[in-house]
Each structure stands twice: as C-alpha cells, then as structure tokens.
Backbone:
C-alpha cells in the first residue's frame, strides 16, 4: 500500500477562498514533499518540509507537518483559477532510497 | 525544465509483445524512478535506481524490469505486455535521496 494518502480526494472552491489538503503517511520520514500536476502534464515540485520542521511557507503556500500524527497539510491561500490541478504528497518512506506518492487531491477553483 | 526526456510519448502495442520505455536525463542525477499513474491510484512506484546498475523494486514491479547501464538512461521493459499495463508512465530524477524530484512529460501506453 502507498505511503501517503491525501484527503479529500476532490475539492471544489470559489476563487479567492483558501484550499486545504491533508496527507497522512505510515512510516517515519526524513522529509515530506508536495507536488502539483496540471492535467496531462508531469508533476512539479512545490515545497519540501523536513521532519524537524513544523511549518513552512512559500508564497501563497503553507505546509505543516505533525510527525506525531504522521500527517501534513497544504494550505493554498487566496486561490486562483490557475491553481486548478491535482496535488500530491510524497515521502522518502523512512529513508529508503525511493520516493512514494499518495493518491492525490483534485482541486478545482471556480471563477 | 530539468533535462529529462521520455520516449516514446505515446505507444499502442498488442498483448504479449515486449515494450521498452526510455528515460534520458542530462542532469547527472543519481536517482531515477519509474511510476505508473492510473485513475484512483495516484502515482505508484514501479522500480527505482540509486546508481548505475543499482536498481530495486517498487510497490508494483510485477511484469516489469529495468536496466541502468549508464547514469543518463533508465529503461523500463514490459516483457510481455498485458491490458492491465495500459497506463501513463512517468520517469523522475533526483539528485539526492528524498529531495526534489523532476518529472518527465509521461508516456501514454495502450495495450490492446
């Protein structure tokens, strides 16, 4: 089974609202990453948070990490139509030499 | 964009035929990954490599083999394609373990 599981599977909001997506994982990690995928394209890296960090910001993105609960959240503030995409979390699965992804959250921003 | 190229971009093949997908990078990154993406399953890791001739299985490796004879190329082979292997295949590279990965544009494979 996969290391990361995103919740919700789909999210639809109005432009300007904030979007929150959650990720849970199973094993210990060294870091957790978030990626975006536009329809028909490859994934693009958004942000990486290390296991000793609790929160990280990048522009309109805010990521939190709770290692005690094995969970992370991605907040996109002031959403725009261009944020419409699928979002995935990925972990290094406890330091194994691989990168494991969750099932993703499909985000739709309505104008 | 990172220098990563997948070929072919689209392929239709018949059940039972062998198929090889190629991932080529110009970044000299150590780690390379093959994923498949199917509706409802996200990205699932097939095989990965942490160096030349160093490869290991991911979570869905049955029916697939890989080879990495040089840093820049990572080949994924379906020995005898089945309809269940119809999918979009993505290659990714990263410089260090567990760090930012760069993805190719994907290969859409249809097995009929």
Residues:
């Amino acid at each position: 089974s996969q290391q990361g599981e995103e919740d919700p599977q789909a999210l639809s909001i109005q432009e300007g609202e904030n979007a929150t997506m959650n990720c849970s994982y199973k094993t210990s990690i060294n870091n957790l990453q978030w990626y975006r995928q536009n329809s028909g394209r490859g994934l693009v890296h958004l942000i990486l948070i290390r296991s000793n960090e609790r929160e990280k910001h990048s522009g309109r993105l805010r990521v939190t990490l709770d290692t005690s609960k094995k969970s992370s959240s991605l907040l996109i503030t002031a959403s725009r139509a261009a944020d419409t995409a699928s979002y995935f979390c990925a972990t290094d699965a406890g330091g194994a030499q691989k990168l494991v992804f969750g099932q993703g959250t499909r985000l739709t921003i309505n104008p | 964009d990172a220098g990563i190229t997948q070929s072919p971009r689209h392929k239709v093949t018949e059940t039972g035929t062998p198929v090889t997908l190629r991932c080529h990078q110009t970044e000299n990154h150590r780690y390379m990954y093959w994923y498949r993406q199917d509706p409802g399953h996200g990205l699932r890791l097939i095989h990965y490599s942490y160096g030349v001739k160093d490869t290991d299985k991911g979570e869905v490796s049955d029916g697939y083999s890989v080879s990495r004879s040089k840093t820049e190329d990572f080949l994924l082979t379906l020995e005898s394609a089945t309809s269940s292997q119809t999918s979009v295949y993505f290659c990714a590279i990263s410089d260090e373990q567990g760090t930012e990965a760069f993805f190719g544009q994907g290969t859409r494979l249809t097995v009929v």
Remarks:
- The longest strand of chain B covers residues 42-51.
- DSSP finds no helices and eleven strands in chain B.
- Chain B touches chain A at residues 31, 33, 35, 40-45, 48, 50, 56, 58-59, 90, 92, 94, 97-106 (CB under 8 Å).
- The CA atoms of residues 47 and 57 of chain B lie 5 Å apart.
